[in-house]
Amino acid sequence: MKLSVAIAGEYALPSAFVVWRGFEQSIKKAAEFGYQGVELALKTADEINRHKLERWLQQSNVEVSCISTGQVFADLGLCFTHPDADVRAKVVEIFKGFIDLAKDFGRLVNVGRVRGFIPEGQVFERAEELFIDTARRICDIAGPLGVNIIIEPVNRYEINFINNLDQAAELIKKVGRNNLGLMPDVFHMNIEDAKIGESLIRNSTLIQYIHLADSNRLAPGYGHLDFDEIFSALEVFGFNGWASIEILPKPDPDTAARKAAEYILPRISEYNKKIYGKKKQ
Ligand code: LER
Ligand code: MN
Asked: What residues line ligand 1, using a CB cutoff of 6 Å?
């Protein structure tokens, strides 16, 4: 398992849920604080220059762990379940850009709030139908390029569709594409999943990536989540993807990022010793 931190462009809204803003500086800081990767929270792929990105990553010896897409919903107001076909086509276009970037950087594109919601007056089945159709179109663009799409269940106070891991797993089955996986976020799981460890284990075959934050969305260690339970569950199925820190930048961005790394890196090191043996860490 490797540790990454979510970052965004300079002008990202607070709803981007990242600690640092400004790609170049954030990549440098991530390396300085001991992170091996950065998760790019983007609104569109052309927000970042891929040649510069390549250079910044090389200079800091950091990788892109994933491209996350919450701002397509929170800032642009677009989503998979939008009743207007033109809006859904626009979402597919934007995801085409993310996928093209991800084929060279991280090979994972997340679907968080951008999966959309069930509008008032609409039934679950209609939202599900629209979601499945958009998800298939996006998976079929990503598949041949070696990119996986990962669905992130999000708590009920942010969205009314796909709140827990079991619901996501059921929908993934209905979409029926093998490049569609699951991205748990333990902050949301603390609200929606009856038992975090058991839910991770039950859905383990689909899990490709994980977001870490504490119960109050601050750095792990500042709240009451049981990270021993979380790491023990990941150990049961030998999770070997990225864990990514997605937290509020409080009390300030540097302190939040430092505290998270100090709390999680030793756990990852212990975890890797158990999973891969003493040499690889
Ligand atoms: C994003 O990763 C997330 O966790 C959501 O709360 C917002 O999209
Ligand atoms: Mn998240």
From this structure: 17, 68, 70, 112-113, 152, 154, 158, 185, 211, 246
